[in-house]
Design brief:
elongated; alpha+beta; 27% helix; 6 strands
Length: 113
């Protein structure tokens, strides 16, 4: 379950930002998760409280915003919605579609004190 290591990275990022920006606690964390990222939102929700225990985000609320997958066909240059990383182009059938959105995970927003 790589979601736990992702959450540990989030905690580390929060701690680093707290030192630089001089805040002492996090009350809300919004994560943006691409639907093509192979990250399971339910697993993040499940592990969030455990990973954040005894940290500045111990009682923080977790909000997950899902980002749709988008791709650009390398053959016909059409932009398409993607459900999986290997979706072919719906216009020309080409398997050569470059993901342009939806494979990322990022901290979108924080509420801090």
């Amino acid at each position: 379950m790589h979601e736990l290591s992702l959450l540990e990275n989030v905690r580390e990022i929060l701690e680093n930002h707290a030192l630089r920006q001089k805040f002492s606690s996090v009350t809300k964390v919004t994560l943006e998760i691409g639907k093509l990222s192979c990250v399971e939102p339910d697993a993040l929700r499940f592990g969030f409280d455990v990973v954040m225990k005894d940290s500045l985000a111990e009682n923080a609320e977790l909000i997950i915003s899902e980002l749709n997958g988008l791709g650009l066909c390398q053959q016909c240059q059409q932009q398409i919605e993607m459900e999986t990383l290997y979706d072919p182009c719906v216009y020309c059938g080409s398997p050569f579609v470059k993901v342009i959105q939806g494979a990322e995970m990022k901290i979108k927003d924080l509420c801090v004190t």
